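Exercise 7b. Backbone tokens:
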């Protein structure tokens, strides 16, 4: 076990923010993790789990032992002619896992192509894009309790998945390290190409009878055209969640802003794209020094290089205030603030 001190996390968060970890360790196996969690020297020391770093805003140094799971491996645990069940280590890169599935003709995660982050972080916030959420393919999540190193397998239902939510962000926040996830994927997949942008891009590609690979390709094309690559410009994807408001409030909003887009959630609720609200509040393409709002997707806040977490937090608060003033809607962050 190699514990380092005062380690820069700049390359371990997609915003590229230069906060430091008081102590830091890469973990390569569940055994290594349980040994660490039961080590008397570290047992009572505060711990912080850092996955792919694609959904956090570091506003300060982390005065804890930062545990970075690098548990690798993709293993077939069950297979028949219709489906395959894969157990995947938390430290696998999410997009590499998606490509593994596409290459092998396993359907179910192709709409989630190019989402930054690790497999272990994905269930945490039930990642989703283009009509698919990870909860539709997760069979179970394997985790280890931070307090005593005890292993536990969470069934899909026990994960309490919601829109960018799970039990690991709510009642069990900071209590477990996710060490892996098990996925059931289909060899005869029903493709999901309903999302307008996806349909249009498939047509442009000439994919009349799309395959899993076509869907993945179309989604990569869309994402590359709208979303900044964190390797070039620091960002954490959507900064806020799309707010859900009542149908009554939506109808009132429509009177003042007839063009406001909205997607029904159920009979009483409508989801409004936060990107639209932020754009209409005048923030799209806004830049102040080294930070700003992306010019092609107003829901994405960016760090051009030397920005700080505090600056981004302050900008996010200004955006929240102006959206609340203009539309009477409160935006909630999707990104976790540290
Ligand atoms: N829009 C604007 N201006 C903008 C951006 C968006 O008016 O600058 C409006 C447009 O009406 C557009 C609509 O918002 O049609 C939806 O935009 P988009 O398809 O880009 O999706 P989104 O709602 O902004 C969500 C997810 C993304 C996911 C996409 C595609 C959330 C918080 N975000 O964004 O997820 O990739 O849908 O499914 O639900 C992420 O979570 O980090 C993420 C990138």
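Sequence design result:
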């Amino acid at each position: 076990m190699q514990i380092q001190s005062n380690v820069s996390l700049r390359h371990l968060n997609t915003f590229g923010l230069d906060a430091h970890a008081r102590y830091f360790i890469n973990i390569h196996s569940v055994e290594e993790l349980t040994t660490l969690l039961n080590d008397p020297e570290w047992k009572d020391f505060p711990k912080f789990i850092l996955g792919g770093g694609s959904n956090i805003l570091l506003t300060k140094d982390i005065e804890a032992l930062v545990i970075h799971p690098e548990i690798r491996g993709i293993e077939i645990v069950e297979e028949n002619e219709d489906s395959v069940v894969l157990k995947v280590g938390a430290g696998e890169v999410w997009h590499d896992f998606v490509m593994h599935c596409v290459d092998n003709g396993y359907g179910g995660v192709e709409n989630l192509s190019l989402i930054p982050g690790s497999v272990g972080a994905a269930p945490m916030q039930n990642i989703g894009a283009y009509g698919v959420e990870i909860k539709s393919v997760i069979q179970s999540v394997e985790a280890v309790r931070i307090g005593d190193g005890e292993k536990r397998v969470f069934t899909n239902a026990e994960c309490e998945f919601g829109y960018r939510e799970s039990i690991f962000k709510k009642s069990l926040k900071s209590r477990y390290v996710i060490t892996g996830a098990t996925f059931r994927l289909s060899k005869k997949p029903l493709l999901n190409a309903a999302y307008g942008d996806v349909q249009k891009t498939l047509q442009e590609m000439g994919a009349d009878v799309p395959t899993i690979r076509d869907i993945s390709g179309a989604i990569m094309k869309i994402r590359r055209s709208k979303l900044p690559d964190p390797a070039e410009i620091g960002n954490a994807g959507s900064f806020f969640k799309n707010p859900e408001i009542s149908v009554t409030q939506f109808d009132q909003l429509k009177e003042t802003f007839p063009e406001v887009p909205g997607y029904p959630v159920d009979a009483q609720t409508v989801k409004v794209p936060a990107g639209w609200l932020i754009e209409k509040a005048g923030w799209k393409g806004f830049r102040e020094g080294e930070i700003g709002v992306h010019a092609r997707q107003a829901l994405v806040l960016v760090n051009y290089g030397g920005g700080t977490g505090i600056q981004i937090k302050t900008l996010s608060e200004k955006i929240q205030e102006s959206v609340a003033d203009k539309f009477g809607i409160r935006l909630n962050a999707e990104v976790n603030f540290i």
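Instructor comment: The domain at 234-337 is CATH 3.90.78.10 (Uridine Diphospho-n-acetylenolpyruvylglucosamine Reductase; domain 1). The chain has three domains: 4-69, 74-186, 234-337.
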